[in-house]
Design a protein that fits this description.
By secondary structure, this protein is of the alpha/beta class. It is built from 22 helices and 31 strands. It folds into five domains: 9-114, 3-Layer(aba) Sandwich (GIY-YIG endonuclease); 122-188; 210-386, Rossmann fold (3-Layer(aba) Sandwich), CATH 3.40.50; 397-440 and 497-636, Rossmann fold; 644-737, 2-Layer Sandwich (Alpha-Beta Plaits), CATH 3.30.70.600. Helix 1 packs across helix 2 and helix 8 (210-220) runs parallel beside helix 9. The radius of gyration is 31 Å and the shape is globular. The structure holds adenosine-5'-diphosphate and zinc ion (2 copies). Residues 454, 456-457, 472, 474-475, 477 line the site of one zinc ion. The site of adenosine-5'-diphosphate (ADP) has 15 residues, from helix 9.
Length: 743
Amino acid sequence: MPAETPSNYQGTVLQVAVPSPLRRVFDYLPLSNKQALPGTRVKVSFGRQQLIGIVVSVSSGSSLEKKKLKPILAALDSESLLDDSLFQLLIWASNYYQHPVGEVFATALPSKLRNGVALRDSTRVWTGTEPSPQQGELLGRAAKQKALLDFIRAEKEVTDHEVRQAGFSSQLLKQLELKQLVTEKSRAGAAEPAFEPASKVTKFEIELNEEQLSSVTEISEALDSYTCFLLDGITGSGKTEVYMRVMQEQLAKGLQCLVLVPEIGLTPQTVSRFQQRFSCKVASLHSGLNETERLTAWKQARDGSAGIVIGTRSAVFTPLANPGLIVIDEEHDSSFKQQDGFRYSARDLAVIRAREENICIILGSATPSLESLHNARSKKFVHLQLTQRTGSKQNCGMEIIDVANETLQEGFSEQLLYRIRKHIERKNQVLVFINRRGFAPILNCQTCGWICECENCVTQFTVHSNPPSIRCHHCGTAARLPRACPQCKSKDLNTIGIGTQRIETFLQSQFASTPVIRIDRDSTRRKDSLQKMLDQVNKGAPCILLGTQMLAKGHHFPNITLVAILDADSGLFSADFRGQEHMGQTIVQVAGRAGRADRAGEVLIQSRHGSHETLQTLANDAYSKFSEQQLQERSSAQLPPFFHLCLLRAEASQMQPALQFLEQLAKMCAGFSQHNSLPIEQLGPLPAPMEKRAGKYRVQLLLKAEKRGNLQALLSQLCIELDTMKLPRSVRFSIDVDPQDLV
Ligand code: ADP
Ligand code: ZN
Ligand code: ZN
């Protein structure tokens, strides 16, 4: 124990995580020792504000002197809101991602709890006071009062309503209260009971094929403790069936299952697939919930009344009373990484959480991330493979149409149009994929070469046709289509490049008698519009389905026999080192939408670089070969998953202050690395590939190390330093550990 000096206090102190950008906890005095409970919420005064924080730890003293310590204003909970493992996970995440602990805890709570709403609704109840010899006298001959008192004593606790229901008047109750024979207190609502573990939790079963069976067997044998499985199975190979079979085993033991899915994967159909199969309650957590619904679902998970909890990224922080299994579907999906604020990876945290809880986790995908494949190779994960489509479904062949020397019509080669026509004639459906919405990505002046750009972002405006407008896809700015060039007044403006709207018009003119259904962010803005379009496709009549990334996940289109991929080249030569990985994943995922029924499917990739090795591998071999090649390239380029990255980014309305600030940090980093002999490479500071976004200039400094530990050591030292520094007010600074997006 530290010697007591005038400047430090000895006694119970609460260390509170307050939602503030500071990377530390704050000391407060409890109102009583009963409140010294980690994981509970407290209301505190913080500067001039009153905030709700979470007690992170309780210590027996503070480095501050007593008069500097403020008592908390109120304790809001009598029990910890978070179970132990989750609590540890949040602390770990705060350290690993170098994010303020107060904001990390705030992320984990539904906003109602963050704002101080009680965990349990409480009701007012009446109870009898301690019986004493004077009571007989007090009651005298008031027989009715005695009857009511007996009733209350017999029931122990009764509400006003119950008193009236039993035939007593409120008047009588008042009289007993005046005589201090009864008293009113508040009773917190009870937790919902945990769900019933039934041996028959499932409503029906499908007979598994051999590969599925051996995966299920292998996972089942490991269910007693932590193992991470990578379930690497092509689209339609029945991964979900495998998850469900393992979930069934855990549910039968009364253990809960947490299922995380990508943002666009959490559809009512996904949830109902689990509801139809299992008899237990399924709590779903997604962005469409209102705050009351969110709190209800969160409590069902925490109380253990929901057997299955299914949600997107942030659901990884849902407390579970009886955790038994975590499943991450489409683990490669980039929506598992939060791209702003607390930049965590839900997939990575889920693995840490499973280890902390000592339970199994299954990461499933048809196109596993290179990170997970690397972990499987180095035996951190157990690699399970499903290579066959279930039932009679056929795998489809991929083919490249090389258009290197061809003039395209609105992005289409003769051959591609011919092939589309063939499929339509055979009364089949066709899917055309291009990951660019709008009409055209560039508007320029034919006379002087001016390009229409968003001033906030210094990138081209995208031309939209309906309504005619220009829109920035980075900051959302929209304006009317200019009639003339602002530079030379010429009216000769031209659109370059293609987007979904332009293709829609073109395909309508080419295939006049076939409906063209465009699915992108613009066409699905209205509620239910996506569902309506999907319903039309599912009716099965010939049509051309045209769309973006939104089509790459979750939907099954049994009547589609041709998938055409128009812009593979943009991924091939992307500035982002993950560009090719993402392109490969998207192509394989989109291809997986086709040929699900008994008709054979075809996938055509149109490219100006048809002989490019990456495309060839993708088309001629499987994703496994493609990913193998990508891993080799990453290894020789010393990039993730072999090396680890951290991106320090500064944004400001001028370039200079942002650059100067990062230059200062770069010097500090270099100093630390040298002093501690940490082999860390620094790249930058440099303007980001996207130099300006939403009016802010962006500069970045990339740190790279072979060992995570070294990077972590450097970052923690840097953050200690940062917290004592006065940051320039004009600069917004962020740290992104394991960044997904370097643009
Ligand atoms: P994935 O998640 O790998 O894309 P799903 O689990 O969604 O595949 O399975 C695709 C379809 O095949 C579903 O309709 C599912 O019910 C069905 N299915 C799964 N396993 C089997 C099986 N062993 N026999 C027959 N059909 C199956
Ligand atoms: Zn001009
Ligand atoms: Zn913009």
